[in-house]
Amino acid sequence: MRYVFSLFVTLLLACGSLLANGPLLQKLQQIKEISGIRELKVQPYTEYYEFWYEQPIDHNNPSKGTFKQRVLLGHRDFNAPMVAILEGYGIYSPAESELSKLFKTNQLTIEHRFFNNSKPEGETPWRDLTLKQAATDQHEIIQALRQKIYPNTKWISTGISKGGQTTVYHRYFYPEDVEISVPYVAPINLEKIDPRLEKFLSKLGGTPENRKLLEGGGKDIKWQIFDFQKRCLENMDKLMPLMQELTQAKGYSFNKVGGTERAFKLTILEFPFAFWQWGNNINDMPQPEEDDYNEIFNYLVKVSSPDFFDDKAIENLQAFYYAALTETGMYAYNTKPFKKFFKDEPEPIITFDFAMPKGYENAPFNTQQLQDINHWLQTNAKNILFIYGGSDPWSATAVDLKKNDKCRKYIKANMDHKCRIASFENLTRSAIVKVLKSWLTGTEVEEEIEEVLIY
């Protein structure tokens, strides 16, 4: 009898588990805003689905209509934590993220409104592309899944670069949607053209501030970069035929920036930002005594590709530019160091206004909103852990937490825009994981890791 009773209890518990962990597909199908569910095979998840979530174009005025937003969901267990990847652009990859690997989580990935296929039909309603509208998109999806599928678990939001910004902005507008946020390499700009970006970039590769950077050629890296830019501008007559050849081969067009020659000059101005952002090696740069202009050109476009200024590329990223020039901030090009090569430019500062949608070139910038978000980060924000690369130009506007010890910031020196938790040395990486685990479990952070660790 004891055996039969034990078997009955075991079966009852097993059935209860099956009921509690009912089929994920059926749960998704019961959410009325979800359609177009398609199963994918993505390791290591036991189930993985792509679906579309119907959103209002304007959450304040549903009469404007709706659009469908692309979402991915990787499932391990209904009681496992959830990592919500808030993309700043289209969905980059369905693969398991760093955080999902670290904590063996489920994973939700949300494409940003008005990118890729997550757009309304017809002309894009640019005025509805705001930080608040995008955050509300994410809020609706997160709440639908939290309430109806994953009510008993902790949630972590995260994103990279513009996705990191998106993560911060969502948390600002909806601080209770998730328990933890991990923005990677997220600039917190405070103005339309934040001057800290140019100031920071002008110092990268110099010898002050006890920086230990790659050496080469007997000059600071920043001056080698400057000399290379100058060399390119001085030899425009030899390099432009190569630019024309590349333009024809790739099918580029540069009408938005003012023609092929101006696009080439902008490519040269972009060179330092691109060099540092993606961690290029100064020792690959052609030496000053070398006169192989094919090699010079190939190195330039390998580091700073002209396709950044191609009409189609700008059009594909127009949602990024609209957001940057109305709400999130951007950098600009200062032509003063090369003024003799830019005599035709009406202003010494070249902005990205050329990338704005037609008719929105003079759209106002919401500086006050950025100030409000920054104040919140320095006072009331909690359980946000920031990751930065110390040689990434976007670190110029890294968050300044002031005395807010409820959040953390970690900077990996000599690391670029690809900086992740795995980029840190073992000691710091362990400290980061301990902080996140303490937030997940609601336990106290150990004293020795309360300080911000910068390596």
UniProtKB/TrEMBL annotation:
Pfam families this protein is in?
Peptidase_S37
The UniProt entry, under InterPro entries, shows: AB_hydrolase_fold, Peptidase_S37
Q: Name one GO molecular function term.
A: dipeptidyl-peptidase activity
Q: Which UniProt keywords apply?
A: Hydrolase, Protease, Signal
Task: Kindly state a single biological-process term from the GO annotations of this entry.
Answer: proteolysis
Keyword check for Endoplasmic reticulum: no
Which residues constitute the signal peptide according to the record? Answer: 1-20
Q: What is this protein called?
A: Peptidase
Q: Which organism is it from?
A: Butyricimonas virosa
